[in-house]
Amino acid sequence: MKPDDIRKMSRGEREAKLKELKQELIKLRYQAKMGHIDNPGRIRNIKRTIARILTINREEELGIARQPKTTSK
């Protein structure tokens, strides 16, 4: 998930997504430990997305919130 997509979400949506990603990460870590993981790179992607969400939440708390980039053609 890209940072611009995360910034477009409301605070509640981000919290819900964060909870969902943390649950998925727990499941994937368990699968990895058991040796039954299909895509080990997914763990890395989920960890990065969690970090992005937490960073954007913190930016808002500090009043450093950035605007999502608009793409123009």
From TrEMBL:
GO terms for cellular component: cytosolic large ribosomal subunit. Keywords: Ribonucleoprotein, Ribosomal protein. One of its GO terms (biological process) is translation. SUPFAM superfamilies: Ribosomal protein L29 (L29p). The keyword Ribonucleoprotein applies. GO terms for molecular function: structural constituent of ribosome. Belongs to the universal ribosomal protein uL29 family. NCBIfam families: L29. This is Large ribosomal subunit protein uL29.
